[in-house]
Design a protein that fits this description.
The complex is a heterodimer of chains A (254) and B (192). With 254 residues, chain A is an all-alpha fold. Chain A contains eleven helices and no strands. Chain A has helices at 3-29, 33-53, 57-78, 83-102, 104-115, 123-152, 154-159, 169-186, 188-205, 209-234, 238-253. Chain B is built from six helices and eight strands, in the order βββαββαααβαβαβ. Chain B has a domain at 3-78 and 131-185: 3-Layer(aba) Sandwich (Rossmann fold). With 192 residues, chain B is of the alpha/beta class. Chain B is globular, with a radius of gyration of 17 Å. The chains are: A mainly alpha (254), B alpha/beta (192). The A-B interface holds A 29, 145, 148-149, 151-153, 155-156, 158-160, 202-203, 205-212 and B 50-52, 67-70, 72, 76-78, 80-84, 86-88, 90-92, 108-110, 126-127, 130.
Chain lengths: 254, 192
C-alpha cells in the first residue's frame, strides 16, 4: 500500500477507534447507547442539508448533532423508554434519505455518510478528529467519577450538591460532537460499531471499570487496524468490513 | 447533642400527600427508627429529605452544612457493569476498614459476581461509610442474613458513637429494637 496515500486516512480512523470505544463505555453505563446511533443519523441529515444550503457539510453535521445533543434531555424527560433517541434516529434517517433521493448533489454525499469515506479523509478531517478526540478523552477522565456516582447513587450525587450540567447536557453535547465527527469519516454504521461492540464485550469480560475501559480500547483499536488492512487488501469498503469483524469478535467472545 | 434534622407537621408525597403530619428530630450520635405498615410513606419521607419527593405542608429544617447520605431500598444498577467493590467504595469516599471478613476479601470482585446479600451489604456500606453527618437508611436489613444484620447493628452503633445521626426505616422490628435509641411509629394517612 502507498504509505503516503493512506497514512492520513489511517490516522483519522485510528483517532476514532481510540475515542469511540471509551465514549461507548460511558454511553453504556448510562444506558444511552441508542443515542449514539441517533446522533450519527442526525449529523448525516444535517450535513446533507448544509450541502444543499451551500454551507460546508461538516458544519451542518456538527450543528445539527449539537442541537440534538443539547435538546435530547428535554425530549427524554417527556418521552420515556428511550423514545427520544429512537425518534431522533428515525427522523434523522428519513430526512437524510429523502434529501439524498431528491437532490443529485446530496446523493453522493449521502452514500459516503452512510457507507463511510475513510479512504478519502484528508488533514481537514484528521485534525478535528484528533484534537476533538483528545479533548473528549481528557473530559471523560475528569468526569468519570461523577458519571459513575450519578448512575450508581443518584441521591448521593444530588445530596453532595454536585453540578449536574457537565454530566447531563455537557456529556450529551460531547457525545453528539464526537459521533458527528466520526460519522463524517467512518460512516454511520462504522462509527456505531465502534461505539457499541467493544464496550459491550468489555462489560461482559472486564474485572473492574478501569480494565473495562482498557478492554474496550484494545478491542476497538485491534479491530480497526485489522479491518483497515483487510479492506485495503481485498479492495472492499471499510465500514462494512469493520462492522463484520466486530460482529464476529462479538459472537466469538460472547 | 446538636440537632441535625427537624421536621414540623411535615406532610410529603409525590403527586399527592402521602403521610400524616410528622414531627421528628434526629440529633448527632442518635439512631432513630421509623416504622409503620406498607404505604404509610416511610420511604417517601426519606425521599423528601433527599429533595426528591414533594413537601406539601409543614417544614424540614437541617443544621447548616449538614452532609446527608441516603441508601435506597433498591440495589444500585450494577448488574452487567464492570464495577468492583473497591471502585464502588472509592466512588462514595467510604473506607473499607471495618468490613465483615466475609466481604473484606472480595473487594476486587465485580459487584454483579457477588451474591445478592454480599452485593447489598457492600452497596449499603458504601453509603453508610461515606463522609456524612446524617445517614438515612431505607430497609437496610433486606437480603441480609443473620451475620449481616449482626454486623450492621454493631457498625451502626459505632457510627453513631463517632457522632453521626442515623435515621432508619425498617420493617424488621427485632433490628429496630436492637439498634435504635428512639422509634417513631407512622400511621396510615387520612389525607385524601
Amino acid at each position: 500500500m502507498s504509505t503516503e496515500l493512506f497514512l492520513i486516512p489511517f490516522l483519522t480512523g485510528l483517532a476514532c477507534a481510540i475515542v469511540l470505544p471509551v465514549l461507548g463505555c460511558y454511553l453504556r453505563l448510562r444506558d444511552e447507547w441508542l443515542a449514539a446511533l441517533a446522533y450519527s443519523h442526525v449529523a448525516a441529515a444535517g450535513a446533507l442539508l448544509a450541502l444543499l444550503a451551500g454551507v460546508p457539510p461538516v458544519l451542518g453535521g456538527l450543528s445539527t448533532a449539537a442541537l440534538a445533543g443539547s435538546g435530547r434531555r428535554l425530549f427524554a424527560q417527556r418521552l420515556s423508554g428511550g423514545a427520544s433517541d429512537a425518534l431522533l434516529l428515525v427522523g434523522g434517517w428519513a430526512i437524510a434519505v429523502l434529501l439524498a433521493a431528491n437532490a443529485p448533489m446530496a446523493e453522493r454525499l449521502g452514500h459516503a455518510l452512510f457507507d463511510g469515506q475513510l479512504y478519502f479523509a484528508s488533514s481537514q478531517e484528521l485534525w478535528p478528529v484528533a484534537s476533538g478526540g483528545l479533548v473528549v478523552l481528557f473530559a471523560l477522565r475528569a468526569l468519570s467519577s461523577r458519571l459513575l456516582l450519578a448512575r450508581v447513587y443518584p441521591d448521593l450525587f444530588r445530596l453532595r450538591g454536585l453540578s449536574a450540567w457537565p454530566i447531563q447536557v455537557g456529556f450529551d453535547l460531547m457525545a453528539a460532537f464526537t459521533l458527528a465527527l466520526a460519522t463524517m469519516s467512518l460512516g454511520v454504521m462504522g462509527a456505531f460499531a465502534l461505539v457499541f461492540i467493544p464496550p459491550w464485550l468489555a462489560f461482559r469480560r472486564a474485572a473492574n471499570w478501569r480494565s473495562g475501559l482498557r478492554w474496550a480500547l484494545a478491542i476497538g483499536v485491534l479491530a480497526y487496524v485489522a479491518a483497515f488492512a483487510l479492506a485495503l487488501g481485498l479492495d472492499q469498503p471499510f465500514g462494512p468490513v469493520l462492522a463484520l469483524l466486530l460482529v464476529l469478535a462479538g459472537l466469538l467472545v460472547a | 447533642m446538636s440537632l441535625l434534622l427537624r421536621t414540623e407537621k411535615l406532610v410529603v408525597g409525590w403527586q399527592q400527600p402521602a403521610t400524616q403530619p410528622l414531627d421528628l428530630s434526629v440529633a448527632a450520635g442518635e439512631i432513630v427508627g421509623l416504622t409503620g405498615p406498607n404505604g404509610v410513606g416511610k420511604s417517601t419521607l426519606l425521599a423528601a429529605f433527599a429533595g426528591r419527593a414533594k413537601v406539601f405542608s409543614g417544614r424540614i429544617e437541617q443544621s447548616p452544612g449538614v452532609r446527608l447520605a441516603l441508601q435506597r431500598q433498591d440495589v444500585p444498577p450494577v448488574v452487567g457493569m464492570p464495577l468492583s467493590g473497591r471502585e464502588l467504595l472509592a466512588l462514595t469516599g467510604a473506607a473499607s476498614d471495618g468490613l465483615p471478613t466475609w466481604l473484606a476479601g472480595r473487594l476486587d470482585i465485580r459487584l454483579d459476581r457477588l451474591s445478592g446479600g454480599q452485593r447489598h451489604y457492600l452497596t449499603l456500606w458504601a453509603v453508610l461509610q461515606a463522609p456524612a453527618d446524617l445517614v438515612l437508611l431505607d430497609e437496610p436489613t433486606n437480603n441480609l442474613d443473620v451475620a449481616g444484620v449482626a454486623h450492621l447493628t454493631e457498625h451502626l452503633r459505632d457510627r453513631a458513637a463517632a457522632g453521626a445521626g442515623i435515621l432508619v426505616v425498617s420493617h424488621d422490628t427485632a433490628f429496630v429494637d436492637a439498634v435504635c435509641d428512639r422509634v417513631i411509629g407512622l400511621r396510615g394517612s387520612d389525607v385524601d
